[in-house]
Design goal:
Layout: E1 2-6, H1 15-27, H2 43-51, E2 65-70, E3 73-78, E4 82-87, H3 96-102, H4 107-111
Antiparallel strand pairs: 1-4, 2-3, 3-4
């Protein structure tokens, strides 16, 4: 089951705080009873990514979405203000696509055994 809300910062909460409060609301617990969000994603980076939604000329930037797993829920936030929380049926597992994007590529893998032979 997916629960979708909208976040605009009007309640005085950062986006990262809104995520924790929404999961707490669904779970029926106090937000302080949940584990820290930084175990799933950097809260400051998340807040910063969505706080600057306008380009230099004042127009809205492209739609950006970020997804991560927190406390057994798939969280998806969008720069349009959407905040979707979906309960996962299985164990919490990181998104394999995120691991792929974060993978470090060695120079040997890029160039073969001798970096001077780049074509």
């Amino acid at each position: 089951m997916e629960d979708e809300r909208w976040w605009d910062g009007s309640r005085g909460r950062t986006l990262s705080e809104a995520v924790v409060y929404e999961v707490a609301r669904i779970e029926g617990v106090d937000p302080l009873a949940l584990p820290p969000l930084f175990g799933a994603i950097d809260p400051e980076a998340l807040d910063g990514l969505f706080s600057a939604r306008k380009t230099l000329d004042g127009t809205e930037d492209s739609l950006v979405t970020v997804g991560f797993v927190y406390f057994g829920y798939r969280i998806t936030v969008g720069s349009d203000g959407s905040l979707a929380v979906e309960h996962l049926d299985g164990p919490e597992e990181p998104d394999p696509r995120a691991e792929l994007r974060a993978e470090t590529v060695s120079s040997e893998r890029l160039y073969g055994s001798d970096p001077s032979t780049v074509e």
